[in-house]
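pinning this so it doesn't scroll away 📌
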Amino acid sequence: MNSGDNLNQNLELAARLLAEAAADGCALAVLPENFPFMGARGKDKLQHAEELGAGPIQDFLADTARNNNLWIISGSIPLRSSDPGRCYGATLVVDANGNTQNCYRKIHLFDVDLPDRGERYRESASMMPGDELVVQDTPVGCVGLSICYDLRFPELYRKLVEMGAVVLSVPAAFTLTTGNAHWHTLLRARAIENLAYVIAPGQFGQHSDGRTTYGHSLIIDPWGRILAEAAESNCVITSDLDPGLPQKLRREFPALSHRVFK
């Protein structure tokens, strides 16, 4: 998706794409980070922050999941925190009946300077970090939840695998600079080293704050093969997943059980 600063337009786009995924027979859909809103300033998202369990974005997710008989992982939405000046970036897992089954709050916040590019990012100025790892059983297997910058911390994914994950969800809004350099490599590495599927939907193009995101949404199998990749457009990519394949590969190629340092 290329989300902007108009909440209703973003939800309308997401509704169209989710209906398309359902019509193609999908059981689970994953949206990009910040799918409902990307404003001109980081703090602009605070005006749309919701309490967990109530709000128009969560109503949209519940209704859309129910109407399409589709599980949805919400990429990220703004949820209120104890600090009125900062919100959580949170992924909700909504089942096909419209019930929220789980919530993951982004742990690693993108506070990075890229001086050669004249880029500076401070997510911590408008966001609170979470502190809880989350996995959720879904129709395609146990999914470990993460968001964007989490991708650079492999120890997080090891923990998710220890908790039962066979699929890793990585919704993102990767910058064009870091995406060109690292996106494919990091995602394939997370799949290979954990012998897990990776589903990584991304924002693309220029946004209201002038930032350009990389796009290239990917679905990767546990052997590191790219099963589907998006062009830079508002679109849906799909793939069939075999929930038994990660465990089969982990038995045949038992690298996870050969770990010395844990």
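📌 and the second one:
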Amino acid sequence: MPEQEGNAQATAGNKRDFRRYLRREAVILALLSALAVIFFVAVTALSHIYEAQQEFLGNRWFLRGAADLKQSHFESAVTEFRAALLYERDSYTYQLNLAEALVGLKRTAEAYAYFINLWDREPENGLVNLELARIAAQKGETEQALRYYHNAIYATWPGDQQVQRRDTRLELIEYLLNIDAKAHAQAELIALAANLEDDPVQQSRVGDLFLQAQDYEHALGEYRLSLKAEPHDPTALAGAGFSAFQLGRYSLAESYLQAAVSANPNDAQSAARLRTAALVMQMDPFQRQISVALRDRIVLKAFAAAGQRLESCSSAGAAKGPATIPVAQPGLTEEWAKMKPRITELGLRRDPDLVNTAMELVFSIERQTSNACGAASETDAALLLIAKLHESN
């Protein structure tokens, strides 16, 4: 019995020890867990502090770079953007601004490396596509330039996307005009004009670009839209007058050019075109609603002017040597001299068909002497334009 009691007491003691051990281990585990949590919180806090410090330093360098970039201090900007990237290596904004600063320094190859990497990350970024288009254009890589320009037009832009896209298309149009791709420029201009707001300044500018692309019909249309809002704008009036002049609408051209010269008396080009347009209107015998008598007087004047052109051409050729006289001129001179006795008011009245015959000869003389006989008088220039106006009739 005593032995059994001793065993029982030992067992009870062991159980108490075991319970104390478990309690001690739980406390230790709790303490360790608490310490782990504290260390984790501390490390996380330190990590956040470190990241915030890195972000602060990177942003400080970036702001310095942005200020220098704005003032075109490209060398300083490059250094500052590189410093910013030491703290945030993958920052899209920092890399983009660094690439732009490199463009400013004309370090195109380095800039291209950044831009193409940025394009891989965000192919829909408008500014990146525009810069890649400019680099391709500079290298003469037309297809690549066009692709990136079109990407930029339809890409995502910060701020006013409509303005950014319009300006990008304008830049593309100017590029196409610079490489003499007038047909492509016309197509882009038509697309631009279709989405243009009622802004007379922009409409006039697009009219100027249509003129450069030699699309005079659309140019005239844009100038007219501009003039609805600004009817006395000298630039738009001059552009409308020139467009109508190039289209052979000389009455309309005369009206616009007269207004342009009134708005800007120093516009010598418009004044010269106005005189020519007026002469065309005065010397075209095939105008509608003119009397027979006036028509005949115009033919007499045109015939005499053609004779003077032949004479001045012969004199200039004789002074330089026979080889300079146009091959067809002697025949024209003989034909003109043969017809001259018949070209009178009475002769034209008796034979109305003589009007066409006389003017055909006048037109032939003006065409064949236009390139070979030097600068023409204003009257001869007007007669040549009349010839072109009626050559398809």
